[in-house]
């Protein structure tokens, strides 16, 4: 069911993108032949009075808007390339721009409805770490990072990501005695590539102040190592390989340190103690890290214990626009930095994912909850915005390049140039698709 919701969610984002192209064309009076969601065989088709057909196809991961071309019957005065270049440029940009606006709206909705997470309070500071050198202390509450207001620990993590590699990062904290202090983090020794193996707060050398939760299972991901082992929701982990376990953190640490290694668990289930063998899977992005696919059972928000560690950040109408803008800009900056790191080798090519990975990640976000799902939809919207504007032939950015060339030359590029340019783009996209699909399948096998 989660995978179905994930596919429908992605189809909605594609619909948003293509609707941007379609409505821009309608506004500019550029006729549209066909509006398709998906590829492959048509499931059904509707027609409007303007002569546009709307088609739903069998493979939902994609879509397109088809305009009139010179070789089509009755195309006189309707051909897309015969319209002024400025109209064509607006139509091309409208698709990615709609994804950008949609992502911003998702973040506004998140801010208004409230985002639940850990309070930005420092729990531990690792010795000789970046945080220790900046004199960050346990009990400090992080108020802002480089001017961005921090209300949750996840805000701190997200705002820190695009700042990796910076030698001077301003951080304002409230000390345990309520004194407000400005300090400086030196992140020059870090890079985006480091987060393939380490959480960003571990790179900086701090951990959040967290409640010591009992090792009780709150949920198990479908197809995970935990499900295959026979573990069930509400199981309480008593020991691993004979060593007693008292907190979820101890249990999680043992799992992460044991990729592809069989662990013997003593488990309390319905007042009975049973033995279960669990072999954590190898993390797809880090072969030295184990992955079980288990979610912790946490106390309900609102209890006195949890209120000490967790909070719900609700942004008033006067502030939510700034919150959404900062979330959007931080995500885009991270996307640009990720592409740069890929090009210079800072990030491994095996970190790239394709349709299978996207559906899996969206499916996991559905499992976690509505907030996580909406945030994932916002991230994918921004990815669609950015990558569609890359100057690769066939993509929107590639079409934009040919229109810019037309403006500069004051004539359309030659048919030979367009043919070679599009062939190159098609070859690049097919190669990329094969590569990311191979990565996806390698993670599954």
Q: What is the helix fraction of residues, given as a range?
A: 40-55%
Number of strands: 18
By CATH, the topology of the domain at 217-298 is Pdz3 Domain
Report the sheet with the most strands, covering strand number, pairing sense and barrel closure: 4 strands, antiparallel
CATH architecture of the domain at 217-298: Roll
What does this entry look like structurally?
The structure is a single chain. The protein is of the alpha+beta class and 445 residues long. The protein has a domain of 82 residues: Roll (Pdz3 Domain). It is built from 13 helices and 18 strands. It has a 4-stranded antiparallel β-sheet with strand order 6-5-7-8. Strands 12-11-13-14 form a 4-stranded antiparallel β-sheet. β1 and β2 form a beta hairpin. The relative contact order is 0.12.
């Amino acid at each position: 069911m989660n995978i179905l919701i994930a596919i429908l969610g992605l189809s909605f984002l594609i619909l948003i993108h293509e609707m941007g192209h379609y409505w821009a064309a309608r506004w500019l009076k550029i006729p549209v032949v066909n509006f398709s969601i998906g590829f492959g065989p048509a499931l059904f088709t509707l027609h409007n009075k303007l002569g546009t057909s709307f088609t739903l196809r069998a493979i939902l991961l994609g879509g397109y808007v088809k305009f009139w071309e010179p070789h089509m019957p009755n195309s006189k005065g309707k051909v897309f390339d015969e319209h002024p270049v400025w109209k064509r440029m607006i139509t091309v940009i409208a698709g990615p721009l709609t994804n950008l606006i949609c992502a911003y709206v998702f973040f506004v909705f998140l801010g208004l409805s409230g985002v639940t997470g850990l309070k930005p309070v420092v729990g531990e500071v690792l010795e000789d770490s970046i945080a220790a050198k900046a004199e960050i202390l346990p009990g400090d509450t992080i108020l802002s990072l480089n001017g961005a207001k921090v209300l949750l620990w996840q805000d701190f993590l997200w705002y820190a990501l695009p700042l990796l590699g910076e030698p001077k990062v301003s951080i304002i904290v409230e000390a345990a005695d309520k004194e407000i202090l400005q300090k400086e983090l030196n992140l020059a020794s870090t890079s985006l590539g480091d987060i393939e193996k380490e959480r960003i707060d571990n790179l900086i050398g701090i951990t959040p102040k967290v409640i010591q939760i009992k090792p009780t299972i709150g949920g198990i991901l479908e197809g995970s190592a935990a499900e295959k082992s026979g573990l069930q929701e509400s199981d309480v982990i008593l020991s691993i390989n004979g060593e007693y376990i008292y907190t979820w953190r101890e249990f999680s640490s043992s799992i992460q340190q044991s990729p592809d290694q069989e662990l013997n668990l003593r488990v309390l289930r319905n007042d009975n103690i049973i033995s279960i063998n669990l072999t954590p899977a190898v993390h797809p992005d880090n072969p030295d890290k184990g992955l079980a696919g288990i979610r912790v059972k946490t106390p309900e928000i609102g209890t006195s214990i949890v209120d000490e560690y967790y909070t719900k950040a609700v942004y008033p109408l006067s502030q939510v626009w700034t919150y959404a803008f900062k979330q959007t800009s931080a995500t885009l900056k991270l996307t640009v930095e990720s592409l740069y790191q890929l090009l210079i080798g800072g990030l491994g090519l095996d970190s790239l994912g394709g349709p299978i990975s996207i559906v899996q990640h969206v499916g996991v976000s559905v499992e976690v909850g509505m907030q996580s799902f909406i945030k994932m939809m916002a991230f994918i919207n921004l990815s669609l915005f950015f990558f569609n504007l890359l100057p690769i032939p066939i993509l929107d950015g590639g079409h934009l390049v040919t229109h810019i060339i037309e403006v500069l030359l004051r004539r359309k590029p030659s048919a030979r140039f367009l043919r070679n340019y599009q062939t190159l783009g098609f070859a690049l996209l097919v190669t990329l698709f094969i590569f990311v699909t191979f990565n996806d399948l390698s993670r599954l096998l």
